[in-house]
Amino acid sequence: MTRSARRTRRTLQVAGASVAALLALSACSSSDDDSSAKTKSDTSSSASPKLSGSITVFAAASLKESFTTLKADFEKAHPGTKVDFSFGGSDTLAAQITSGAPADVFAAASPKTMAIVTDKKDTAAAPATFVRNQLEIATLPGNPDKVSSLKDLTDSKLKVVLCDKTVPCGAAAQKALDASKLKLTPVSYEEDVKSALNKVVLKEADAAVVYKTDVKAAGDKVEGVEFPESADAINDYPIAPLKNAQNPELAKAFIALVQSAEGQQVLNQAGFLKP
């Protein structure tokens, strides 16, 4: 072999070794990148754990239709989760919570009834107002008694129903009556707004003072009559996670939905006012 040929062969060997070294370095770098990506992925996954399990939400009776819609949306967005409700008068629900009834979230129809729970330090975070609600008169379909004002309800010939004064809708109705200097003796005081409305639906009463949202939810079963005094008795609705929640992460996620743009749209469509 000539000297020139030997020189060429050594040059090719050196070049080959360099290429091999570069390939090995590239493989190591790729492996490191994959490992880093995997680590980031694992970290991201652990930072956002999948929601599971169930929660119990205690909520004012007037929220029944809206919250039932949000339950379906929530469970669809988080497969494997379940939201159970206990609807009723806010004062009754608050008393149950402070007595140890198992619940994860409380949505009340007034700050006063929420205060029953916060005063006992049974909430896990400060309550937040998420909607407001205004009163309306519910009459029989077609309004046969021609009710047009709050004063008309003082007619002794009319059978009128109110929520109990301890319930937010009853307290608001009394506030409107007091502001108008009107006295009204109802045929009954009901434990929550749905019970009051139902008296009219069943034609056991001629009229009831309830929320606009309940009149809207009843459809053609009743007729709604607005009255100006209701503007002075609008109720704020607060919501809060509870201290003894069995599933605090799920409770937090449900409250987030209620406060989100999607949740607010559902509530506004039902007739609730923005907070």
Descriptive notes:
- This protein has 275 residues and is α/β, with parallel strands linked by helices.
- Helices cover 45% and strands 19% of the residues.
- It has helices spanning 3-47, 64-77, 90-98, 111-118, 168-179, 193-201, 212-218, 248-259, 261-269, and strands at 53-60, 81-88, 105-107, 128-133, 135-139, 160-163, 188-190, 207-211, 223-225, 235-241.
- Helix 3 (90-98) runs parallel beside helix 4.
- The protein is elongated, with a radius of gyration of 32 Å.
- The protein starts with a helix and ends in a 6-residue tail after the last helix.
- Residues 2-48 have low confidence and may be disordered.
Q: What's the quaternary structure here?
A: single chain
Low-pLDDT residue spans = 2-48
What is the arithmetic mean of pLDDT? 87
Shape: elongated
* Main structural class: alpha/beta
Strand content: 15-25%
- Rounded to the nearest angstrom, the distance between the terminal CA atoms is 94 Å
Order of helices and strands: HEHEHEHEEEHEHEHEEHH
- Amount of helix: 40-55%
Total strand segments? 10
